[in-house]
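Thread: quick sanity check before group meeting

JM: Hey all, I'm pulling together slides for Thursday and realized we never actually wrote out the predicted structure for the chain we discussed last week. Dropping the sequence here so it's in one place. If anyone has concerns about the input, flag it before I start.
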Amino acid sequence: MPSRLLLWTDRAEPYRAAIAAAGLDDRVRTEALPRGATPSEAVLAETEAMLAWGVPPGLLPRMPRLRWIQALTAGVEGWLALPDLRADIVLTCARGTHRTSMPENILGALFHITKPYHAIALDQRERRWTRHVSVPLGGKTLGILGLGAIGQEVARLAGALGMQVIGTRRGGAPLPGLAEVLPPARTGEVLARSDFVLLLLPATPETEGMMDAQRLAQMRPDAWLLNFGRGALVVDEDLVAAIRARRIAGAVLDVFREEPLPAGHPFWTTEGIMVLPHIGGLHPERDAIVAALLAENLGRFLDGQPLRQVVDRAAGY
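JM (edit): ok, ran it. Output follows.
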């Protein structure tokens, strides 16, 4: 009998297409539901594998046959916070599917900070000829906290621009394209040496609120903070205070503790903070990219082989 797979997403077709292309159609029976819909009790009872953004508390106990969840996101703190996520359910994430879009968006943020195109566009609206000077990225130091797949690709691209790249990673083993890799215990050194500090860490109990007043004080007054990791990494009020007091130059933020960012949040109105509406990992073909991962993992699941991008629950990612 074919295994039962629930595609709990608004765009099921790319996932169905990937499953068909992998030749798995005859080995799996799929049920597709939009995110706002609730699976029937029959579907819950029979589902063995599921692709989803998340589930409400209390739903997983009604899925006794569920053995594998493929999360649609790289961050899985919402899944791990579920009190009823059974130990026998394998959780895999979409880590690595942002390898193209996020590094390019991070480079875009660096160019926005250092190149005057926004100011020039405003001048053009007023038909005003004003000379502006770009700040070169070559020779600047980029400090990356969290040197996973995305961080290493950013390091490669930044190195091609002539930037020096340093960063932190568990173990501190050297990596290609980085001038220096330090263990997380030496984060303060990275902060003190960097012109731009890029956050790419997952949300875990250890990283919660790590960029607080003390950490921000370790940055240089002319340095910028870029957060493309998780909103929980930053203590919001401490960042606002640091920028308003000019203890750091500014910040580009793509992730927030609450999304959409509430209209009354001071990030909107603090000069020196740029709010991005969580665009870092977006890609016009994102579903197709994640679908390729799903199809590969589905084949492994059906064959009893180890899955890719399995979440380490103890580590939190």
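AS: nice. The two ends are 33 Å apart (CA to CA). The domain at 3-97+284-303 is CATH 3.40.50.720 (Rossmann fold).
JM: adding both to the slides.
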